[in-house]
Design goal:
single chain; mainly alpha; Rossmann fold; two-stranded parallel ribbon; 6 helices
Length: 118
């Protein structure tokens, strides 16, 4: 988190990253049939919602969708969700902080750094 604290720039979260976290907790809740065992996953889901309220969320929009289509046509070889995150960063001329440099460095024109460094 040191890189985030020291960057001095506006830090935002791609809506696609929020979507991934939501899907993960909702899937965990659905996998548990015992309603008592759903208490902890629901609590963690609730904590995620509270955490996300503090962030500026960058929404999916026309420029991001256009970037996504352009990258898909160029056959960028990363997963769909990561490609959407990269598209949002490109459409917003943003530096992407990620621990997944291996995939994101494959995207032409994307500025990406590890958020773990620094």
């Amino acid at each position: 988190m040191a890189k985030l604290d020291a960057c001095g720039e506006k830090v935002s979260l791609p809506v696609v990253a929020a979507e991934e976290h939501f899907r993960s907790w909702l899937a965990q809740i659905r996998r548990v049939n015992d309603v008592h065992k759903q208490i902890i996953p629901y609590l963690r889901f609730q904590n995620l919602i509270a955490f996300l309220r503090k962030w500026d969320i960058v929404g999916w929009n026309e420029p991001a969708a256009d970037e996504f289509k352009r990258l898909r046509a160029a056959r960028a070889r990363i997963g769909t969700q990561d490609l959407k995150i990269a598209s949002l960063a490109l459409a917003n001329d943003a530096l992407l902080l990620s621990a997944n440099l291996r995939d994101f460095e494959q995207v032409p024109g994307l500025r990406v750094e590890s958020w773990l460094d620094g």
